[in-house]
Amino acid sequence: QPAACCPPQPAAPSPSVPMSALLALAVLTFTSAAAKPNAGLRTWEHFRKLPYPGDEAFLYDTFPKDFIWAVGTAAYQVEGAFEKDGKGLSIWDTFTRGGNRMATGDVGSDSYHNIQADVRAIQQLGVSHYRFSLSWARIFPNGTRGSYNEIGTNYYRNLIRRLKEIRVQPVVTLYHWDLPEHLQRTLGGWANPEIVGIFRDYADFCFQTFGDDVKFWITIDNPFVVARHGYGTGVVAPGIKNDPDLPFTVGHNLLKAHAAVWHLYDRHYRPRQSGQLSIALASHWINPSRTRLESLRECQCSLNHVLGWFARPLFIDGEYPACMRERLGPRLPSFSPEEREQVRQTADFFALSYGAVLSFHLINDSLKFGQHEDLDLRKLLYWVSAEYNNPPIFVVQSGWYVLGKTKTEDPKHMYYLKRFIAEALKSIVIDGVKVIGYTAWSLIDGFEWHREYGIRRGLYYIDFNTPDMKREPKTSATFYRYVIQKNGFPELPEHRPARGTFPCGFVWGVSANSIQVETTPTLFADPSVYLWNISNNGQLQKVEGFSAPPPRRSTHCADYDTIRQQVDQIQKIGVNHFHFSLNWSALVPTGDVAHPNTTLLRYYHCFTRRLLQANITPVVTLWYHTRQRSSLPAPLDAANGWLNSDTAEAFANYARLCYRELGEHVKMWITLNEPNDEMVSYQEGHQMLQAHARAWRAYDREFRPSQGGQVSLALHMDWVEPAFSFSREDVEPAKRVLDFRVGWFAEPIFGKGDYPLGMRRWLRQLNSLDLPVFKEEERRLVQGTYDFFAISHFSTELVTHAKENSYTYTAKLEVQLMIDTTWIMSPRPVVPWGLRKALNWVREHYCHVPVYVMANGAQEDPAHFKDNLRVYYLYNYINEALKAYTLDGVNLKGYFAYALNDQRDPEFGLYGQVHEEVIVKASLSNYRNIIQHNGFPIQGAAPQECPSRAEACWGCQILVRKPVVGFLTLVGSLVLVTLGLIIYYAAKAHKECY
């Protein structure tokens, strides 16, 4: 197996190590070591060196045994009851009533009155921890202990008690953006250093009241948003935006407040309560716009301005990052030596938030420093680990969002959730990062801060217009529950590479849309006379004023240098078949086979003959559908193209011409290649089916007895998978799409002689009369016109009946097409198992029909001659084809890689080209290796023994009762006759081959 498919994996913590021991060890490690400045800078280089694309492939594995699975909410988003039972106003209660804001969190998700419903949802998910925040103003209405509210406190006591009953541990956030309004109005909120002591006193009460049942505390959620967007941009409460330096003062106070609370807990509560305490820091990820070190430093500085602003003082040395100090100068407050000691190393774990939060969407480019913001949790985890002494990392908020109109089907949210969890798993298993837990955000739909109710992030759907606020699980909730039950993504047998070989006689091929045609014989086209090697330099020197008489002979196949070059390239791949398309419009320009292009026909004849001489069987397509331009002869195209019934008969006559002229060498024909394109109308498809059938029956009656070949058509068949594999509701849409894409052409030919029943029913339901009806003679003409089933397969899509504005919605079929965000992109998704499923679809629908994968390949930058993506693609797709053959019983007869070269099929070639030089790509060598082994032999097994094919004849046609051409080398007046040697070697080759 190539290295790209199975990347080396650094040592990682064993999943069998208890998480508690891992946490304790990690705490000891990161508190006793000192991080080098900018240690995270190596992150970009580290990931650049990982094997591509193998490192990006989905990792099937499980999390450590006692990994924390959590879900979370924030008080203002979900609680509601903003004035009930003595609760005081918060800055968000005030903020949502000012400016141009349209909605409030007055009711939110009404969790205050729905504890049991929330707890039931938490229990259904199967999480081990629930993160929620306390509403400071519900406990202390004016922010201080003197305003204590017993009823509000009891709400949280009740919630914690209910969580204990279902064995779910609380993760409690003391402050999640909802400062008591009284403190903002009287003190200026977090801008006033007096709030440090007030916050400490509030925390002291919470530790006293709830601490015996709480083992994880978060002091402040996302201080970056509080400081920058609450007191800087004014996007969130309290909405202050007049003083550009105020955010740094606020951030300074937030750090000191957190540190004061940590020391309070550490000294007075930890010995008895044995909990852990941290602050939730959120960040974006960013990639360099260039590979220069300056760009990497700008990326590093961008992260330091968002995450390092708070993480560096807390986890390292009580100082702000150097790049912040350099750029902001005196605008950034300073810590005294005593304050540095008070702040440094005041976190027991790294609480990381990541996803659709304000710190990911940086609102403007000011903190990107010319670099590119990106979505990559794994790299951020690695950076945090490197930058801050490998602390235990608890992802305390992660997820995505969907637009507010989405109800219980949220595929976008679900697949982003899958992506983030998968990245956390790779971070543990491959990168050795100490990730101890993951929190999906959020439990239920709620008030989404400055976006109000315009987006939804909940795993449970809430109709905010109903009085009971019923919690309905979304598909993302179902997915998350499955992941938790399996503790990740355990490897199943179908995920493992297969070992074994294809049968003897298996067809290995390469496909090209077309071949290079140069009908001018290159060997005799130049009438000039040359002197050779005059200066012993091996050069030709043209003799001016002289020309050779034109050769008095007809053109021979050996004259076409382009044929020799192309066949040589094909032969070096090691294939035994080559598939290419003829050019109908060039072969029969008038549409009338009585006037063919005999020169081009001769060229094709020579090409197929030369292939056979090289032991390569030609597979020839008569017509290849192209979207960009019509590939019909101009007169037929002008006469309504395929909509004209005469075109089908013209195609049959064209096929007869090709059978007659090329059938001596061609034993495998494709009439129509990928006619089932979505741009083709049903009326055009109806005529194409009849054109194929006429061409097939013409061969069957007139040519098969003497030529003994096979004829079929090739259908484009990318796979379509239900987006929600655990939901039966998406099975029907997937079947519908396959009916319309593949069954449309397959069922009339390979099935019952009519279009799929599901296709007719659906169009009838839409009152559409677009689909033609087969007359009885048409049905008899079309049905059974095949010798094999050929497919072109490149990729896979997901389909769902749900509708989200983020993806392509096909109104006619009422389906949404999308992708899994964990898939490798080429730019189309690389989904090897899709080929296996496509092959099984053919078997299930048409029994043991012989099947050929007529084209399969990946798009990659032509400049990548070490095309690792294509190496990975071919290896894994062929391996899935082997599974279909050996495990599923698919009657698979052959596989063709697409394509031969970039010159004819840009970005798909096994050969590249720079100027005039042909480059052998890495994928070609890997494909040849698979062919030589006829698959993936079991290690140590006896070699497969197959009858050997006859060796290719290289000297044929040089001397076969034809004129001999001699070359004279002229040096001065001395004539050296080399004709004897030419005749000797030509005669020897003639004897060996004939």
From TrEMBL:
Protein's cellular compartments: Cell membrane
Main location (coarse class): membrane
Gene3D superfamilies per record: Glycosidases
Keyword Protein biosynthesis carried by entry: no
Keywords, comma-separated and alphabetical: Cell membrane, Glycoprotein, Membrane, Repeat, Signal, Transmembrane, Transmembrane helix
Signal peptide start and end residues: 1-35
The keyword Signal appears for this protein: yes
Membrane-spanning segments: 964-987
Pfam families reported for this sequence: Glyco_hydro_1 (PF00232)
InterPro entries: GH (IPR017853), GH_1_N_CS (IPR033132), Glyco_hydro_1 (IPR001360)
Single GO cellular component term: plasma membrane
GO biological process: carbohydrate metabolic process; fibroblast growth factor receptor signaling pathway
Molecular functions per Gene Ontology: fibroblast growth factor binding; fibroblast growth factor receptor binding; hydrolase activity, hydrolyzing O-glycosyl compounds
Membrane topology of this protein: Single-pass membrane protein
Family: Belongs to the glycosyl hydrolase 1 family. Klotho subfamily.
Protein name in the entry: Klotho
Organism, as annotated: Tetraodon nigroviridis
Source organism phylogeny: Eukaryota, Metazoa, Chordata, Craniata, Vertebrata
